[in-house]
Task: inverse folding
């Protein structure tokens, strides 16, 4: 990806970043994000023409992607949210806990799970299993970013924004220790000052 060909201005770069000591380098500009999200919305609109959809965002990272994507979906739509947390302290990666379930019934609904990033696939596999027990009519996954090379579990998204290499990224909803979700572009976090 070459952001310079897509209208990156210095304003997109480091000027707005807080003085945390982290090094951030732009990977996907807000213009590229906007164009891709519009494309995904149009695809979803065409795929579900004449039907209703329920968008389920995975908190917190997918909040911004969902908000933008939803406005490009020209269908009867509703939102719901789910949250999972992992026990990082116990160093047992893959140990997930549901901290917020969906509020409404999904039975007979066209469910589109909205994820910020598909990495190892562990989170998506866990959530998919959980939501499929609620008997939706269809179940699709929209992931803004896909780090395919990191996959540990065979799972794919139906709608993918950008395939990216094995880099740690922040911005547009994605965080590092809760920070940077508000950045309008996606950045690579290089040599983080305090990697937890
Ligand atoms: P998975 O279970 O390994 O697929 O991880 C998915 C979750 O890990 C995402 O929903 C993110 O919260 C987090 N994650 C994975 N890669 C990144 C990254 O590069 N930046 C920020 N969060 C990430
Ligand atoms: Mg996160």
Result:
């Amino acid at each position: 990806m070459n952001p310079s060909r897509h209208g990156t201005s210095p304003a997109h770069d480091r000027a707005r970043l807080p003085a945390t000591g982290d090094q951030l380098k732009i990977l996907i500009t807000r213009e590229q994000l906007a164009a891709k999200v519009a494309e995904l919305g149009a695809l979803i609109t065409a795929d579900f023409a004449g039907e209703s959809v329920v968008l389920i965002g995975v908190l917190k990272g997918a909040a911004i992607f969902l908000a933008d994507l939803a406005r490009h979906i020209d269908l009867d739509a509703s939102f719901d949210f789910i949250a999972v947390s992992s026990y990082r302290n116990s160093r047992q990666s893959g140990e997930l806990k549901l901290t917020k379930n969906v509020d409404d019934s999904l039975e007979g609904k066209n469910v589109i799970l909205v994820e910020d990033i598909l990495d190892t696939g562990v989170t998506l596999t866990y959530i998919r299993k959980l939501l499929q027990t609620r008997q939706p009519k269809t179940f699709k996954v929209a992931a803004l970013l896909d780090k395919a090379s990191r996959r540990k579990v065979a799972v794919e998204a139906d709608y993918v924004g950008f395939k990216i290499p094995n880099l740690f990224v922040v911005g547009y909803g994605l965080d590092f220790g809760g920070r940077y979700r508000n950045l309008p572009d996606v950045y690579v976090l290089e040599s983080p000052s305090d990697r937890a």
About this structure: The longest helix spans residues 30-47.
